[in-house]
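[Solved] Which block belongs to which protein?

Original post:
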Amino acid sequence: MANTLPDLDQLDNGALKALAIELQMELRQQRETAAQQEAELAALEAEFAAQREKLAEQSEELRTRSDQIEHPRAHLKNFKGALQADAYAGFHHLYEGGAIYEVACWAHTRRKFYEIHTAHPSPTTTAALDRIGALHGIEEQIRGKPVDFRREVRQSRARP
């Protein structure tokens, strides 16, 4: 439709009717375009909200990781020696300098081998579980005994 309207006094009923139909079609098209744009805007707003939520979660995760690193670092700043941390992720950075070394927990190691063995049994997982079980058996026998005795038994019986 042209940008300028014709002089309405010059139009007969047929021309007026045609003009009205043309205007209705143009209005319908504009409404459809507006509806499409509103739908696109709503989709963009939903995507933006989802990304904002994801960023907030990532930010919180980073804050948590930072706390996990900084708290143990501050708490153990003067400590040197063996640390049994039960695979706590917040302690991994402490082992980097060499002043602190990890004393691993066989229960956690066994659990990982058990999970793998349950999903995909193999001779390797079977052997690992058997060996860890043997270590637990030794520990049961020496629990509560003097330190030197436990060390001697471990050194003599706990080797592969």
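(Second protein starts here: sequence line, then its structure tokens.)
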Amino acid sequence: MSESSTLDGNRSDLKSCASRTVLQPIAQRDFMLIQLTISNFAIIGHLEIHFKPGLNILSGETGAGKSIIINAVNLILGGRASAELIRSGADEARVEALFQVPLPSPVSQLLEEMDIPFQGELLIKRHLSRRAGTES
């Protein structure tokens, strides 16, 4: 596996990406979520999901946590965070998403402009803390 770039800055970095409409054109290409890691988020203690090319389906009984996984993805995409999302008894929650991004792409160009090394993978992290709020 190639080395991943990490966008673990502040929320304004993510807003900057979105404001430059970087994600919209890429959605039509081979931009793909390949791994999602969730820790202490809602009822989930720890979960790691690996996605493969093609159709990936989340299925399960009512209350199994499917919507929580979707909420975690929304958080990665810049959704609103709240300390209420932290699992009961935990001090912090983490959601990490590893994306495969085609070269060249608007994202690779943006990362190059920001002097962030990039080799086709991008790791985006969100940390929620009861003490300090949220970090992107």
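Accepted answer:
You had them paired correctly. Confirming on the second one: The domain at 5-135 is CATH 3.40.50.300 (Rossmann fold).
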